[in-house]
Amino acid sequence: MRTLPTSISLLLALLLAPMAQAATFYVCTGAKGEKVFQDTPCATGGEKRQLDRLEGEAAVKKRMTLAERKAASAGRDWVYIEATDNQSGEPVQMGYVVSSNSVTLAGAGAQKGKFVVRSHPKRGEELMLMVDKAQFECAGASCYAQVAFDAAAPETMPAAGGNSSPNILFIKAGDEFIERLKRTENLTIEAPFFDGRKRLQFHVVGFVL
Predict the structure, then answer these.
(1) pLDDT of residue 73
(2) pTM higher than 0.70 for the full model?
(3) CB atoms within 10 A of CB 28
(4) pLDDT score of 69
(5) What is the pLDDT of residue 14?
(6) Where are the alpha helices (DSSP H) in 17-141?
(7) What pLDDT, in 10s, does the model give residues 103-162?
(8) Which segments of the chain have a pLDDT < 70?
(9) Cβ distance 172 to 160 under 8 Å?
(10) Which CATH superfamily is 72-203 part of?
(11) d(CA 38, CA 33)
């Protein structure tokens, strides 16, 4: 976050700040017995609180270090890793799950996929589908993914191929996708592979950001 340089900027920021709204947050017990805030119900027990939304979101965001994300997802399918962005020097966190099924690709046989959520310091949250030995067929309007949250009807979402990685497909979706992901158990993605469209299923329950 940039430091505001003058008192005038501070006043403007206060004037433009959204009005506080009460919202429900949960105080849960972490893997090491520590208290953590989150905006989804605790796995077991926990305490529900009505907090100012800005205060609650700050508490949730503050706890999400790499270690805390790992602790919060203990026993789930999510794997979290961290690297340093070469340009900014800031940390980039990434969470991924491996598909519960495989797709059969010409010349490569059965392949599992990874659904990846990457938190980038400049580009924000990025959604990716990765299949090691795949080649996605992604050009123009024909490049889209069909995404289904649990038993809901599939939704068409624009996609884009990786510039130098034909085995990566970027799914172009906004913050609403992330919020829905937090409430989803099973995610199905149909993607355009070189030898036809194929579906991968992911068990995504317990995602934390």
Answers:
(1) 65
(2) no
(3) 20
(4) 66
(5) 28
(6) 53-63, 66-72
(7) 999 888 999 999 999 887 677 789 999 999 999 998 766 689 999 999 999 999 999 987
(8) 1-25, 30-39, 49-75, 121, 140-142, 209
(9) yes
(10) Invasion associated locus B (IalB) protein (2.60.40.1880)
(11) 15
Handedness of CA 156, 141, 121, 74 (dihedral sign): positive
The structural domains of the chain, with segments of one domain joined by +, span 20-63, 72-203
CB 31 within 8 A of CB 62: no
| 80 neighbors 64 (Cβ within 8 angstroms) | no
The angle subtended at Cα 118 by Cα 127 and Cα 198, nearest 5°, is 30
Q: How far is CA 5 from CA 11, 108, 138, in A?
A: 11, 56, 45
Nearest 5 degrees, angle CA 138-CA 192-CA 162?
40
* Token representation of residue 44: 């077991």
Distance of CA 27 to the CA centre of its chain: 22
Which among 171, 113, 167, 97 has a CA at the least distance from the CA of 137?
Answer: 167
For residue 56, give every residue at least 6 positions away whose Cβ sits within 8 Å of its Cβ, in sequence order, or none: 23, 25, 37, 39, 49
Q: What is the pLDDT of residue 9?
A: 43
Residue with tokens 């849960």: 28
